[in-house]
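hey can u run this one w/ fe (ii) ion bound, need the structure tokens asap thx
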Amino acid sequence: MRFIAFLFLNSLIFSLSSQSIFVPEINNLLNPALKPFYFGVASGDPQQTQVIIWTKVWNETSQPVTVKWEIATDTTMQQITATGEVTTDVASAYTVKLIAKNLQPNTTYFYRFTTCGVFSAIGRTKTAPLQADELKFAVVSCNNYEHGYFNAYRLIASRSDIDAVIHLGDYIYEYGANKSKKHPSIRQHIPDHEILNLQDYRSRYAQYRLDKDLQEAHRLHPFITEWDDHEFANDAYKEGAKNHQPEEGDWVTREAIAKKVYFEWLPITDNAENTVIRKLNYGNLAELFMLDGRVEGRCKQVESPSDTMLTCVTRTMLGKKQSDWLTSGIYNSTAQWKVVANQVVFSELDAHQLSKKYAINPDAWDGYPEERREILDSFYQHKTQNIIILTGDIHLSWAFDLVQNPKDKNRYNAKTGKGVIGAEFVVPSVSSNGLGEKFPRGLAKLIGSIIKRKSTNPHLHFQNLVDHGYVLLCLNKERAKATWLFCKTLKKRTEKYSTKDSRMTKYNENHLVKN
Ligand SMILES: [Fe+2]
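ok here u go:
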């Protein structure tokens, strides 16, 4: 029924969209030298024998456009592996997405597009391996355009050693422009109002994709993406969002627009239901489970930790279908590392020493404890280990031992790893404000040290609440290691790092140690 409603809405959205694709202000951001491929190229969802490649053409005629594509094994595009032709039109905002097939595993490829005799930039991508000794992923989330330059993407683009970029959501933010004179933004959102309709969402993605650092990261690495709340509206759930008011229109229509535009602009596998839930296989070493903890099965957040609905057994974040898919998929996986690309913090996090009102975050898994308990019960029942949960959303950096009831000394020992079945790595924001912007840095650091006390959160092994950047996840047969790489500043474009820190867990030992 949801699917039929989606199809109906999709055609309704399109028939109502007689307006131009973008708001006029987007024109001011275009680099004439890149016409008609202003938005660059991208690739995504790599598999052993195929990868998605993407571009967008600029077209003033409103007629369909034919685009040729080619993929090769050399940078000069002489050793062509596959080539073809596709047509795009206004229905997809002249975006182009296709699957390049019959490729070799674990191979670097180069690709480009051409229309009317003009070539796009040459992109670089990489297929997944059948067997691997090592994998490296750059893991990111939360790039708010207004809050700073995307230096994490600049740094990621400069790497040549990663297999893919995993994006955990908040790829765009829906808010209007910050007009505060007291606290001005680094740069301002287009359009300047909160995005609500099809033109708004497309314009916002266009603005973000015209950021040269994000564009370059897309050009040089395949992305594996999922959405969080801000691709829709803040604190989204299945039937609405905290930042969606009745006067802003019908939520189901807004949700369908947001999904349509996400699939237009991201190099993600198209599917009839526009879902981001999927599995990617990295051979013997890793299997990647992409989740939708937002609009697939999430019940509305409770208002406070004292709400009696908090522990209601029917309240879900994933919904039964998705959580069964996850637990059975992990149980049946033969890969050494089971990597879960998750949106919000999964581990228990006790902040009662800071505030009774904010002792838990109702938007995180602490707000859905019964579904989390069921998922963990399943892992323990099946004696599943070596689970790596990747988390974004919160604009803070954490590393947790993955354990049920971390304060129960009979069940958990941080030193020996008793009771631990994996690790959760929470990645910093690329640019979105963290505690370092909300409070003086010294106070933010003090908050971090209070939360990290052993008596409060004994399973928390690392925290940084003030810096921005990305996580490099390195997997091999011996260990899973996360390195937090922080940017020196977001106030100007720079390739300078400030600090880094890392934690790792050894295979089958399942507890975090400093590395
Ligand atoms: Fe965020």
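The CA atoms of residues 69 and 84 lie 5 Å apart. anyway lmk if its weird
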